[in-house]
What does this fold into?
Amino acid sequence: MPLLIKGARVIDPAVDLDDVLDILIEEGRIARVANEISSDGAEVLDASGLIAGPGFIDMHVHLREPGEEYKEDIESGSRAAAAGGFTAIACMANTDPINDTSSITERIMKRTREAAACRIHPIGAVSEGLGGEHITEMADQKAAGCVAFSDDGLPAKTAQLLRSALEYAGMLGMPILDHAEDMSMSQGQVMNEGTISTALGLGANPTASEDICVFRDIRLAKLTGSPLHILHISSAGAVELVRQAKREGVPITCEATPHHFTLTDEAIAGFNSTAKMAPPLRSEADRQALLEGLKDGTIDAIASDHAPHYEAELQVEFDAVPFGIVGLETAVPLAMEILVHGGVLTLPEMIAKFTSGPAQILNLPGGTLKEGAPGDVTLLDPERVYEVTPERFESRGRNTPFAGRKLRGCAAATVVAGKIVMNQIAGDMVINTDVEISAGKV
Amino acid sequence: MMPEPYRRKDLLSIRDLSPGEIMFLLDMTDSFREVNEREIKKVPSLRGKTVVNLFFEPSTRTRTSFEIAGKRLSADVINIAASVSAAKKGETLRDTARNIEAMATDVVVVRHSASGAPAYLAGELNCGVVNAGDGCHEHPTQALLDLYTIREHKKEFGGLRVSIVGDIARSRVARSNIIALSKLGAEVMICGPRTMLPAEAESLGARVTTRIEEAIEWSDVLMTLRIQLERGAGAAFPSAREYAATYGINRKRLQGAKPDLLIMHPGPINRGVELSPDVADGPFSVILEQVEYGVACRMGILYLLAGQYEEKGSSEPGGPEEGGPAETQPQSSEVRDAVAH
It folds into this structure.
């Protein structure tokens, strides 16, 4: 049945649209976006008072399947995505076994069709086994459904490996996503270097570690002319390097996470291990640089780096706690609270970071409400207060430094291919996974 | 500075403590020191109490000091040499500690290679937790015994100049001492090669120098730190030989020192590296006094955390009390009784 979304303020940054309109989705695709569309034969979703944007895309998620389903799996992770307002997510390769070959990619695609509540785009490994030696069978992985390549968790190990990967993936029209840290400085270090690390006596890496790797990456993107994306940029120096590189026309993009633009290393005071990530939370000056980079377009996308962990693995000393936090269910509320209500970005600018931004980086067909685009819509309630309650997460991960925070603005409903997969417009959240999700690009 | 009764469940860091609490713990040390000078060095204060030394890092000196302290108070003292690598394979730190607590342990003394591990445990356990050194964070009992040693010789902390020499960045002893001395009004200077000074070193509240001569001339007290030779040369210092030549304290270097300089070291000493043997054993050195007072200091802490200290006028042992500080001198009749036996 067609779906008619009525009366929302429709914002599509890809085509500069911002007006109160109706959206008609037929056969899984956007059919029309116009005034007062007739509801004949369509299911109607009353969205008056809400914001409708293209389906939000989280281009940086760890789903843990295959291999670590006790932390998260495709079903729970995609439910968390739908709950958070995402219609599509891209999942990193550092599963067990690692997604470095088409058979693993195919398995993820199959499980997506069976169990997912949103679209899932696999990201293949750059190097076999994330070993940093041999590039993977990228053409084969692309054919199986991969949309990009990344050794995330680790940087591409050497300049020569990254050069080869960029040349080879670039030939296939695929981007490389790099976790940019100089591991000779960052290996074994658990937080940002500064007054907090000095007071706590915790091992730390300086922002120079990230800057050095981002500089390497930019030079190789320039050398090869192939698209390179910096994951979770965190330092002021790295933002400035990307800004300059873009000015020179280097094919480089980058993303920021909600935790890096919301928190600083002060969050670790008292050995708070829920604030332990890689790259680490930085200083207030770095955080301000991220806000500036988001505002001036240096930072193209917001991505959660959703990294669920098992409870027992967190009940250990700070050094042994694994890096990362869950983010699918807090990313949009944090972006609304900090960026939109905080006066950093306009609503259309913020929406672009979750839609046209990641869609362009990963060459996805979504990210817009143009006629014929995938029928994916995210409805936002900009005033609804979301209290972060880990016990109520759809994700199996509960690791978040935001527990108890009240954030203004969140997703009200999530529509994938014309089907409502999450709806809390009228009250309590209802998630419907009984929706056939076509895996891969449509 | 008035002592202020210590009412905490744990002793995790000097940073947590008020100057009055630090003074109180130094006075407690005084009370217990006398026990160690008796012919029969044992009092029944902690009879029926259980103290577990849970050491995730090898230690002889600190573990022995806590063990002797507990035994002289008649507590049952159990030593557990745990390993971080074994913990990684199975039981979490939390489960290990909760098992120990389930055996009705009164105080757990924790040494761990990870900064913050004792603080994490203290949040999970109802029994008292003593930090016996955590990673590069703090070593509060070492700082307390160092302060006690300094007070024995210098009486006052106000205006006293103390420099700490060595690998400040990786030293929990340095952190606890810098914080403790600053809280009591002493001036602190840290000295070492740039590679051994922490980032934003001034944020610790100390003067910073890389010149050993400057530290020696300036100081009333010179604390030297152990160089971790076992971690290997290369990153933080080129070689033991070069460290000894550039930062080692020897007779010649001490020519510019004050005549009543104190030289301290938390042990174990690398003779000929941090200190030349004649200095380590020489007239300025109070290194063995540090060891001696360490036992009394830890007796006081175990006694407090096992809940045996009862303030004068308080009906509940160890319970909080509204009375003024003048009435809560640590040499209360209760402590005197405890040590009088």
User: Anything to note?
Assistant: The longest helix of chain B spans residues 287-305. The domain at 19-137+294-312 of chain B is CATH 3.40.50.1370 (Rossmann fold). The beta strands of chain B are 50-55, 76-81, 107-112, 128-134, 161-165, 187-191, 207-209, 221-224, 262-264.
